[in-house]
């Protein structure tokens, strides 16, 4: 049973859960009719199943390696990447003017999810290019766009994000890389950057780095940082990779997972770069890229969860162990109640996280297509939830996948352990999940909770609509939504430290309530009976109650949290 | 800040939380006075800090390897093991008649915990010998005892457990290895065993395998299995390792973690073995060994959690990132509310799991020293909780340790990832945590809940005692204990499938309530103010509420769990 991309799940979500029809009614996305999206999902699914999934183990067993200054990708990656590029999958949502498909970001999100389940290490490469394409579309000069976008969108070249430095991780404002104006329209960029995913590889002709650096007159902190495009090879007069730029890969990290994705330390030594956007406005430009990248990482988590789930299900259906505890069972361990509990939890969590991500993507699309502030605010609110919950689900589902495999889960040959190791970083990069939660209770509640309450009104309207068909589920969900509203009201009145103290459990509770909402919607869509209704019942009755504990935690605030001194914690 | 064994924590737990004084009042353990236990804990702590912890990274970086049929241990392991053996630490609880220290199992548990935090791969070796020593003490003939116990207790030889076969994992009754009576007091053992931890190594002169196999007249299932002692080298007339036995290591597994601990596939080919215990009674003999091994694995989880916690704390105290959000802060990331939340959660969970393990160990000791059925039943009840909760805490704390490290957590150099990889197997081996939970709601509630209710009476008495000093904590805990009682009453009335469906959340809730109980006890012991009271408040107000959701989950039963067919789950 090889990996099968969740095409049907996305078809259902687009059809019944999110407002994909509304997206297709906009001028911008008029082409995204159901038959088009169905065809594209099917085609992408085939690529993931037949081309991407087969290189998953190769990336783990034969890590990308730095050889004579060049990063050699894992065996099989070149061919798979070429097929991704040739199919146009790098530029699904990119501007058709430069060769993109111009499809909604919801489509791109679905494909990113499906591809992450096939091979996360490889999927990360197009994901990074997508972020760079978006940043250039929004902020680069026409000349830069013309020179770089067609290459990036076709996949001939690829993009990276160069934010982090040893002293500047979550605190991006501490960036120390320098930029000096060369007086000829270019800048000299110097500094060391770390954690640069796909910082180099032999898969593409050219690697384009988006680098945060400080001009001499840049003030300290985030407001003095500018963004530069720094290619590995400077395009020549014909637009082809020309002279080698003054930058190189210092080393690759030895990581717990994601071995197929080279993580580079990059050194820029008076490298030639071009300003993207306004001077000192690099953070804003970077955030254009990062917001969608956050949603992209969220579905990386969901995708890996899907891969881990399918592998665990296969094992559970195959592995015989003891007498079946049920009549007419399969005889395999899937018959055991606790194995069922784990599998059903995995499946229910994936659907919840996937629906949240799709909702966020649709809000982004509607915001872009209509300019509506409501849609944009909703997308901004859902982004940290989609990122943190999607990747938490990735970690938890991969963890259960290992557990279902028993001893075999700890043995690398099965591949269950690879999902567990690979996915772990998704809860860390693109802003740790703690940072996401701080963003949610900080910036995203700055509106006094307005967006949150609108989402909760939707949840409650759904409960009202479902009350006659599924009264118990509707009532349970309604009650939890009310608790969430009360806690939101409480948090809005608190200072930042009190909000931050409970940020992670608050985000978790919000995701649980939204998850219950989409599960109920799915159940109602099939008339209240059938597998989606069973899954909804499982989620709402067995998993949703956790939100109550998380909300209690979130309300506790910072009091007592600093009462333990570092010495009390165990500092020497 | 190198690893420091939690000596003071154990001194506090022995002094204030568990009935160590009661243990010392028995004839059997009269020597275990507070000053003796203090001295031994201190000495063991020194060994762990100075000798064992320094080889932790070596085991990961230089895995044990099979070379010309012999397993070569990781660099440094030989010297560290020799010092463990010379200090008498293998035989802490072993019979003094054969060279053991004869100390309570509570002491052994404390040392196992401390040593697991130092280096789990190496600690596993003495742990396995301890299990074998115990099985032989209880079930072997005097001749076997005389020949093997002194060697095993001194650490000159080591022991392994050979249960699992490819088709017989959680279902031990499916064992297919064969034993044939040689007619000379020995048996010919044949078969293949998998997952044999420390199945061989160059650390010791001889490796003694306890092997489950079936005699020709053994009935199918667990009741037809016998236990045999099968040494790598057959002792000669002087008791020294003599002729090589007919067994060998086929291969070592490539595992996600615990690289320093060789996991062997063993082949026995008419190997000479000696019967341990009665014929066809092998499972009962093995359970003598496995029950304590389960507690031992529980504190493996707790120990790794301690190591991961200390490493994360060190990083959090050291890593500067952004402006401190608090006045008079350290300036490092420990000042951030979410980092505090994680660190405090880790510390609170470790104390809870450690206290449960210590309580279980003391019950074992009192059961052994007094023969009291109450103590034995309590130990039996607490064993699956100590195993599953201890190792779950190990996994969760190691996971948070990675998160606190941010990007560095995913890089192998820091060692945070090693804890995360190493500890994962503890939730699987010695009976998966799902099996532990089934044991709890199945066998351990067979008494109609009697032991559970007695534990809850203790919890509630503690609440009564604390009501004047810490009314809020006492009330919260009391209420949750009542919910647990009601759920227990409910489960006792259910059939097995309904119990099993909620077994894991039920076990979790029971552990949470007990954890709250020991935290409250600790707070009361310091008069209701001070760091232990702050930690108790954190646990009871922020973590204990999760028990409520877990109990709701546990009460749901099997209904609906089988409503999703394998096809609904995604089977092809």
TrEMBL record, chains A, B:
<feature type="domain" description="Acyl-CoA dehydrogenase/oxidase N-terminal">
    <location>
        <begin position="75"/>
        <end position="155"/>
    </location>
</feature>
<feature type="domain" description="Acyl-CoA oxidase/dehydrogenase middle">
    <location>
        <begin position="161"/>
        <end position="270"/>
    </location>
</feature>
<feature type="domain" description="Acetyl-CoA dehydrogenase-like C-terminal">
    <location>
        <begin position="455"/>
        <end position="564"/>
    </location>
</feature>
<dbReference type="InterPro" id="IPR046373">
    <property type="entry name" value="Acyl-CoA_Oxase/DH_mid-dom_sf"/>
</dbReference>
<feature type="domain" description="Acyl-CoA dehydrogenase/oxidase C-terminal">
    <location>
        <begin position="281"/>
        <end position="440"/>
    </location>
</feature>
<dbReference type="InterPro" id="IPR009100">
    <property type="entry name" value="AcylCoA_DH/oxidase_NM_dom_sf"/>
</dbReference>
<dbReference type="InterPro" id="IPR052166">
    <property type="entry name" value="Diverse_Acyl-CoA_DH"/>
</dbReference>
<dbReference type="Pfam" id="PF12806">
    <property type="entry name" value="Acyl-CoA_dh_C"/>
</dbReference>
<protein>
    <recommendedName>
        <fullName>3-methylmercaptopropionyl-CoA dehydrogenase</fullName>
        <ecNumber>1.3.99.41</ecNumber>
    </recommendedName>
</protein>
<dbReference type="InterPro" id="IPR037069">
    <property type="entry name" value="AcylCoA_DH/ox_N_sf"/>
</dbReference>
<dbReference type="InterPro" id="IPR006091">
    <property type="entry name" value="Acyl-CoA_Oxase/DH_mid-dom"/>
</dbReference>
<dbReference type="Pfam" id="PF02770">
    <property type="entry name" value="Acyl-CoA_dh_M"/>
</dbReference>
<comment type="similarity">
    <text>Belongs to the acyl-CoA dehydrogenase family.</text>
</comment>
<keyword id="KW-0274">FAD</keyword>
<dbReference type="GO" id="GO:0016627">
    <property type="term" value="F:oxidoreductase activity, acting on the CH-CH group of donors"/>
</dbReference>
<dbReference type="InterPro" id="IPR013786">
    <property type="entry name" value="AcylCoA_DH/ox_N"/>
</dbReference>
<comment type="function">
    <text>Involved in the assimilation of dimethylsulphoniopropionate (DMSP), an important compound in the fixation of carbon in marine phytoplankton, by mediating the conversion of 3-(methylthio)propanoyl-CoA (MMPA-CoA) to 3-(methylthio)acryloyl-CoA (MTA-CoA).</text>
</comment>
<dbReference type="InterPro" id="IPR036250">
    <property type="entry name" value="AcylCo_DH-like_C"/>
</dbReference>
<dbReference type="Pfam" id="PF02771">
    <property type="entry name" value="Acyl-CoA_dh_N"/>
</dbReference>
<keyword id="KW-0285">Flavoprotein</keyword>
<dbReference type="InterPro" id="IPR009075">
    <property type="entry name" value="AcylCo_DH/oxidase_C"/>
</dbReference>
<dbReference type="InterPro" id="IPR025878">
    <property type="entry name" value="Acyl-CoA_dh-like_C_dom"/>
</dbReference>
<dbReference type="Pfam" id="PF00441">
    <property type="entry name" value="Acyl-CoA_dh_1"/>
</dbReference>
<dbReference type="GO" id="GO:0050660">
    <property type="term" value="F:flavin adenine dinucleotide binding"/>
</dbReference>
<keyword id="KW-0560">Oxidoreductase</keyword>
């Amino acid at each position: 049973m090889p990996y099968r991309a969740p095409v049907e799940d996305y078809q259902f979500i687009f059809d019944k859960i999110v407002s994909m029809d509304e997206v297709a009614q906009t001028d911008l996305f008029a082409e995204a009719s159901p038959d088009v999206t169905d065809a594209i999902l099917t085609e992408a699914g085939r690529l993931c199943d037949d081309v991407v999934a087969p290189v998953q183990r190769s990336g783990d067993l034969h890590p990308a390696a730095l050889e004579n200054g060049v990063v050699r990708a894992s065996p099989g990656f070149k061919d798979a990447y070429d097929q991704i590029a040739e199919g146009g999958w790098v530029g699904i949502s990119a501007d058709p003017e430069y060769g993109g498909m111009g499809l909604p970001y919801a489509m791109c999100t679905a494909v990113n999810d499906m591809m992450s389940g096939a091979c996360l290490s490889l999927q990360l490469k197009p994901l990074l290019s997508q972020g760079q394409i978006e940043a250039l579309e929004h902020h680069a000069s026409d000349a830069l766009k013309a020179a770089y976008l067609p290459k990036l969108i076709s996949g001939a070249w690829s993009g990276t994000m160069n934010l982090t430095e040893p002293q500047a991780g979550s605190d991006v404002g501490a960036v120390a890389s320098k930029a000096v104006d060369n007086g000829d329209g270019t800048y000299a960029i110097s500094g060391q950057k770390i954690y640069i995913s796909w910082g180099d590889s032999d898969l593409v002709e050219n690697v384009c780095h988006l680098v945060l650096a400080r001009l001499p007159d840049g003030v300290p902190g985030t407001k003095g940082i500018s963004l530069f495009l720094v290619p590995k090879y400077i395009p020549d007069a014909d637009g082809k990779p020309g002279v080698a730029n003054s930058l190189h890969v210092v080393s690759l990290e030895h990581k717990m997972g994601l071995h197929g994705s080279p993580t580079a330390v990059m050194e820029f030594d008076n490298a030639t770069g071009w300003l993207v956007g306004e001077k000192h406005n690099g953070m804003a430009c970077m955030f254009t890229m990062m917001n969608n990248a956050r949603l992209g990482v969220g579905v990386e988590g969901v995708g890996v969860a899907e891969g881990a789930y399918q592998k665990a299900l296969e094992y559970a259906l195959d592995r015989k162990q003891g007498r079946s505890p049920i009549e007419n069972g399969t005889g395999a361990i899937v018959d055991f109640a606790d194995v069922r509990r784990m599998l059903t939890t995995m499946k229910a969590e994936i659907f919840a996280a996937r629906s949240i991500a799709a909702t966020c993507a649709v809000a982004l699309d509607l915001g872009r297509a209509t300019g509506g502030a409501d849609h944009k605010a909703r997308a901004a609110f859902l982004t940290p939830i989609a990122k943190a919950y999607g990747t938490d689900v990735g970690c938890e589902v991969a963890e259960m996948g290992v557990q279902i495999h028993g001893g075999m889960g700890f043995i690398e040959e099965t591949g269950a352990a690879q999902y567990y190791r690979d996915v772990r970083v998704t809860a860390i990069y693109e802003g740790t999940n703690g940072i996401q939660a701080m963003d949610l209770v900080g910036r995203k509640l700055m509106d006094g909770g307005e967006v949150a309450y609108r989402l909760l009104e939707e949840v409650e309207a759904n409960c009202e609509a479902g009350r006659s068909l599924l009264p118990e589920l509707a009532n349970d969900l309604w009650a939890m939504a009310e608790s969430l509203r009360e806690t939101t009201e409480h948090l809005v009145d608190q200072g930042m430290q009190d909000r931050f103290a409970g940020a992670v459990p608050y985000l978790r509770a919000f995701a649980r309530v939204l998850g219950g909402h989409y599960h109920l919607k799915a159940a109602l869509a099939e008339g209240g009976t059938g597998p989606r209704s069973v899954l909804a019942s499982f989620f709402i009755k067995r998993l949703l109650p956790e939100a109550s504990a998380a909300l209690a935690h979130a309300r506790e605030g910072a009091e007592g949290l600093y009462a333990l001194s570092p010495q009390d914690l165990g500092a020497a």
